Automatic annotation (TrEMBL):
Enzyme Commission identifier(s): 4.2.2.23
Keyword Signal: yes
Keyword Secreted among UniProt keywords: yes
Source organism of the structure: Hevea brasiliensis
Taxon lineage: Eukaryota, Viridiplantae, Streptophyta, Embryophyta, Tracheophyta
The name this protein goes by in its record: rhamnogalacturonan endolyase
Length: 649
């Protein structure tokens, strides 16, 4: 079918963009998306919501040290950016004027919509800018939200495994739902759909890592229409590939999250100093719409959306975006190299960094990419031989970061990487040397920056989400913190090296114990291990934390008094991973000296004390624990560097 000519009509306070497949209705000059006509529906957006609360951008921000402020983002000036036979782009811009007195968000915001001929969907993006003279402020969260027709959209899909018929928004209100100790968690006691009775609904149960997401949305009934948010790139999202974001949840709401603090906390706030200039383009992302007249083909809408995601990724960076602040492929560069791991206690030869994550970030210290929030990040995975190419990188000077499954810590190359437009930067052979002093005496877990592989219990039958009963993400269930007490009602967990199995005997979260009268008291885990002999010097404990929330961690060796304490850290973490049903948050690695004088030949015990009580939702998720013997005489703590070129000849 021939593409219908694009039309742009001004109708009172509205702008209508139409390509024959999709019609957008946008309130001007604010830029609120009030209507989406497609597939037999005059409006896919929620008619019961106000016009400013159907399709909108919003932001959470604060003055330094001040309270969080929430506001909708809107334009003050409307203009047509581009109008051709193939593309319409419109802008709704609000400019910050430092000379105007009063408390006002110190950002210039330009919200854009793009409609293309013959395309079943539309593109959204926004340009945030701090001109000279802006006061200091902190940016916590920004996103675009779509509220869909609640009487139409009931089926949500965010992955092959995570899709289902969802509750109605009324089900979360008193009478139909009962709020639990986590405010976002609601027990459905009398839902409109009786099949959902007894389940728990919580928006955080549908969180996804950036690296694992890319497409999520809803399918309506009568007519059968799919509404999908597709991220063709994650370069403009803060926190890198492991940053977890909300996707879609009961509303029915569909979110395009760009910048947030979830699962990390205030460490990832973007702090802007007085007078600091800054600009960032968020997006574009694609809203894809599809439909079918055959109810038996409804699932195919999800499959089709996944295919469309691949097409959008292949087309990135888009050539049709009009803003001069958005760089197309010819204005970008790339970097290529090969990463190896050097660990002399595992191999005498360099080990190709198989399926490692490698990325370019403005962060200048190892691991700091996790909390980097102002600039763009570009990540890929290496192949089975450690080779990688990072394409379509915005020209800048970056730190080269990475981590390798199976090895602790974060990689940061010694040299900064300069990316230039139209050229490929050759990085050659690179070597990651993980922290290591001596041979492994024992270890628990597999270092992959998560608590996956540890024991995750079944949910309490009174607080279940059926979607996760047989799911690999059974940790998404509500109330698992209390299952620790159910499993260990009289005494805390003891793990014996060489006998115990982490998959069945190492609880995934080190939480408080529920005691009488629902009081929560500190808990202490014991690790028992045997040493054939004790070498003189310092042993080294590597403690990799996958997540922590309001925890006081104390580590003791062969006695729980001050003389036997080898480590403590107070008020560790603000991840909120326990209550938000996650398996990882902010990765941290601690290296702890253990004097040989504290160890004995034969049986030994190490104690991990989660020493803060009174908090049901505090806790630590351990990624990996390892005890290393002292380095053999004449060996350095990390070994000598490999001559890779010589080794590979």
């Amino acid at each position: 079918m021939a593409n219908k000519k694009l039309s742009l009509i001004t109708q009172g306070p509205y702008v209508l963009l139409d390509n024959g497949l999709v019609r957008l209705t946008i309130l001007k000059p604010q830029g609120y998306l009030t209507g989406i006509k497609y597939g037999g529906l005059d409006n896919l957006l929620d008619l019961k919501s106000s016009e400013s609360s159907r399709g909108y951008w919003d932001i959470n921000w604060s003055l330094p040290g001040g309270q969080d402020r929430y506001q909708l983002l809107n334009g003050a000036v409307y203009r047509v950016v581009e109008r051709t036979n193939d593309c319409l782009e419109v802008s709704f811009k609000s400019s910050y004027n430092p000379s105007i007195q009063g408390t006002k968000l110190p950002l210039t915001v330009d919200i854009r919509y793009i409609l293309k001929s013959g395309v079943s969907g539309f593109y959204c993006y926004a340009i945030y800018e701090r001109p000279a003279g802006c006061p200091a402020f902190d940016l916590a969260q920004t996103r675009m939200v779509f509220k869909l027709r609640r009487e139409k959209f009931h089926y949500m899909a965010i992955s092959d495994e995570k899709q289902r018929i969802m509750p109605m928004p009324e089900d979360l209100l008193p009478g139909r739902g009962k709020q639990l100790i986590v405010p976002e968690s609601v027990l459905l006691v009398n839902p409109i759909n009786p099949d959902l009775r007894g389940e728990v609904d919580d928006k955080y149960q549908y969180s996804m890592d950036n690296k694992d997401g890319g497409v999520h949305g809803w399918i309506s009934s009568d007519p059968i229409v799919g509404f999908w948010i597709i991220f063709p790139s994650h370069e403009f999202r803060n926190g890198g590939p492991t940053k977890q974001n909300l996707t879609a949840h009961t509303g029915p709401d569909c979110l395009a999250m760009f910048h947030g603090t979830h699962y990390i906390g205030d460490d990832i706030l973007a702090h802007f100093q007085e007078g600091e200039e800054w600009r960032k383009t968020f997006g574009p992302f694609f809203v894809y719409l599809n439909s079918t007249t055959n109810v038996s083909n409804a699932y195919n809408l999800w499959k089709d959306a996944k295919k469309q995601r691949l097409l959008e990724e292949a087309a990135w960076p888009y050539e049709f975006v009009s803003s001069t602040y958005y760089l197309t492929a010819k204005d970008r560069g790339s970097a290529t190299g090969r990463l190896f791991v050097q660990d002399r206690f595992i191999s005498g030869s360099p080990i190709p960094a198989k399926h490692a994550h490698v990325g370019l970030s403005a962060a200048r210290t190892a691991g700091a990419w996790q909390t980097e929030s102002k600039d763009y990040q570009f990540w890929v995975q290496t192949d089975s031989n450690g080779n990688f190419t990072i394409k379509n990188v915005i020209p800048l000077v970056y730190g080269l970061h990475g981590w390798v499954p199976g090895f602790i810590g974060d990689y940061l190359d010694n040299a900064l990487v300069t990316i230039s437009a139209g050229s490929e930067t050759q990085l050659g052979n690179l070597t990651y040397v993980p922290l290591r002093d001596g041979p492994t005496e024992w270890e628990i877990g597999f270092p992959d920056r998560t608590a996956v592989g540890d024991y995750v219990p079944d949910a309490n039958p009174a607080f279940v989400n059926k979607l996760f009963i047989k799911s690999p993400e059974k940790f998404r269930q509500y109330g698992l913190w209390d299952r620790y007490t159910d499993m260990h009602p009289e005494s805390d967990q003891t793990f014996t090296i060489g006998m115990s199995d982490p998959k069945t005997e190492w609880f995934f979260a080190h939480v408080d114990r529920r005691w009488a009268d629902n009081k929560y008291v500190p808990s202490t885990w014991t690790i028992k291990f045997n040493l054939d002999s004790v070498n003189s010097g310092n042993y080294k404990m590597r403690l990799a934390i996958a997540s922590a929330t309001r925890s006081d961690l104390k580590v003791y060796m062969n006695g729980m008094d001050i003389e036997h304490m080898v480590f403590q850290v107070m008020n560790l973490g603000t991840d909120n991973t326990v209550c938000r049903h996650g398996i990882h948050g902010l990765y941290q690695l601690f290296s702890i000296d253990v004097s040989s004088s504290l160890l004995v030949t034969g049986d030994n015990s190490m104690f991990l004390a989660q020493a803060r009580g009174g908090d049901a939702l505090c806790g630590i998720l351990y990624d990996y624990v390892r005890l290393e013997a002292p380095a053999p005489p004449g060996n350095s703590s990390v070994g000598e560097a490999f001559d890779l070129d010589a080794k590979l000849i």
